[in-house]
Amino acid sequence: MSHDAEHVAEDATPQDADAPATPHLDFAGTTPYEDYVQADVLTHLQHLRSDDPGEMVFLVTTQVMELWFTVIVHEWETAGGALAQDDVPTAVAALKRSVRELQALNDSWRPLAQLTPAQFNSYRSALGEGSGFQSAMYRRMEFLLGEKSASMLVPHRGAPRVYAELEKALHQPSLYDEVLRLLARRGHGVPRAVLDRDVSQRYVPSPEVEAVWTELYAGDESGELARLGEALTDVAELIWRWRNDHLVATRRAMGAKTGTGGSAGVAWLEKRAQKNVFPELWTARSHV
Ligand code: HEM
């Protein structure tokens, strides 16, 4: 028995005789929790660059969002893989998990949503040219949504592992490509040009794909493909909300100043936020 365990036993008063067992205290090495979670690593990755007490939450919120991006990429890769195997239930389950994760991701804007310019200025210069624009995991999310662009690999030339992962993601079919291939296999009129498209290019909306979704939405709403369409619409909506929450937080924190990443800032983000995710799922609604 370890010293700590003895201590707990000594502390136990007679009326604790029937008390529920207490957790184990003595481990030969690091705790099994640490071995699994690596909390010691995770909670020592906060290398602050200013003396401002508000910088901690800025950095941790960004790190938390990176972790959510990682989970969501995992879910969408699971969903894409399942669709390629014609396993719609597994794909929908992964998409639904990602919807709850996207909600948690979006809720994590709260600590940063009301930053004033003076508060943000207290540590902004310490960020140098660092910008979320350089987030490779966010870029993988955008690639999975069909927002492909080879130029987005350029910032990562100096990080071989990140570059290789991003390059692989660029050349893999997006989640939406897998959806459209499945719809074609199920007999829906997705054009050959869409099925054979160069998947490393940004997805361009197609009137025929819009007609497929119109037909599915006009039919049985409880059907497997209509439910897949709704899960994808939930994802699209929550991505749009993330972009807009980011835009509003940025407008509050820095007005129309240029971004640390070198862009025009809010004006550039406004254009990005307008991009439609799974475009035909939205336009088809006008025809149902
Ligand atoms: C309130 C604090 C924030 C401000 C003022 C801000 C500002 C900006 C600005 C101005 C840009 C445009 C690129 C540039 O010139 O830098 C940008 C891009 C971006 N930021 Fe933030 N940001 C904030 C918080 C965050 C957080 C917490 C994340 C989480 C990772 C994040 C992720 C991103 C991403 C992913 C982009 C690229 C978006 C795209 O490619 O469409 N930002 N941010």
From TrEMBL:
GO MF: heme binding; L-tryptophan 2,3-dioxygenase activity; metal ion binding
Enzyme class of the recorded protein, top EC level: oxidoreductase
Positions annotated to bind heme: 246
EC number: 1.13.11.11
Record's keyword terms, sorted: Dioxygenase, Heme, Iron, Metal-binding, Oxidoreductase, Tryptophan catabolism
Compositional bias annotation for Basic and acidic residues: 1-10
SUPFAM superfamilies from the UniProt entry: Indolic compounds 2,3-dioxygenase-like
Low complexity bias locations: 11-23
Record carries keyword Iron: yes
Catalytic activity: L-tryptophan + O2 = N-formyl-L-kynurenine
Residue ranges of the region described as Disordered: 1-24
The protein's annotated pathway: Amino-acid degradation; L-tryptophan degradation via kynurenine pathway; L-kynurenine from L-tryptophan: step 1/2
Domain of life: Bacteria
UniProt family annotation: Belongs to the tryptophan 2,3-dioxygenase family.
Protein name: Tryptophan 2,3-dioxygenase
